[in-house]
């Protein structure tokens, strides 16, 4: 829900949106940007680490519009203005990196419709993993994986494109980014995530060599390597020019997924937090004002995941800004309000399933145009 209203003689626009957990209105200064005489409004002043606008990271591709982790989805994301595309990586049996969010295949592919693979269904072989019966990527050769087709994995989203796309390899994704960068004459970066690195290493499938080898020579745009597992990041620190991003989760504090920022700063370039822990009034990870504390340590902040069909996060929040500001002019939908609030908090990038919304809003705020 979003409500706009004029507030007395100060002519403020108040944007109210419901996100899930109670939190107080932010008093962080917003939209205190430079004057744009041609537009009569102020453009956004960015409080990112570099002072430049935040990057838009296409989370699993343009996964709000196409089945996740498909070349079609990544290509659409680039067309929509994403700066960087995000493949989650797992391994095939023959050691090839392919893009899947999960090691199991039943939710994002048509594997259940392939009788030739029926006998591959088994309990999760990872003793520390989720207990489920499924088909596991590391049990399939690349040729077998390539015989599958991607399906919509997110409840409620269109299934129109189911059955059309292969599972891409990491190499194919890098090639796509390179070709798109040339075609569009702009930078297209990649943001691979190592999924289950410790388990996969334990069965002889280590990310380090194949991932770093694949990235060697990639120059279409910036490269970020992310993981929830600190050990793979520590191991490759100093062996790659890629920026390393430690993912942290709002759940299970103390379990190993929430690592103190000062510790992260010793081996990584940034932190990828669940978005709920970014807002300055949510005291998780040992304090408040997550972005400020991360920036003081020189860490980039790239929260996840922004979804127009899954408004989530902390609280009922109110943002006020001058009625003649660029924010008042361009921030309209609930999804835009959410992006805006994080942009105003100074995040350096956002993971989103809807890169068009993030990129359009970011650009409009930067340009003073709608
Ligand atoms: O990688 C950032 C974010 O994508 C982590 O969540 O589960 O979507 O990979 P997930
Ligand atoms: Ca991811």
Automatic annotation (TrEMBL):
Keyword Signal: yes
Record field: transmembrane: none
Enzyme class label: hydrolase
Signal peptide per UniProt: 1-24
Domain GP-PDE per the UniProt entry, residue ranges: 54-362
Recorded superkingdom: Bacteria
Keyword annotations from UniProtKB, A to Z: Glycerol metabolism, Hydrolase, Signal
Keyword RNA-binding: no
Enzyme Commission number, as recorded: 3.1.4.46
SUPFAM superfamilies: PLC-like phosphodiesterases
Catalytic activity: a sn-glycero-3-phosphodiester + H2O = an alcohol + sn-glycerol 3-phosphate + H(+)
PANTHER family, per database record: GLYCEROPHOSPHODIESTER PHOSPHODIESTERASE GDPD5-RELATED, GLYCEROPHOSPHORYL DIESTER PHOSPHODIESTERASE
Family listed: Belongs to the glycerophosphoryl diester phosphodiesterase family.
Stated name of the protein: glycerophosphodiester phosphodiesterase
Gene source species: Hyphococcus lacteus
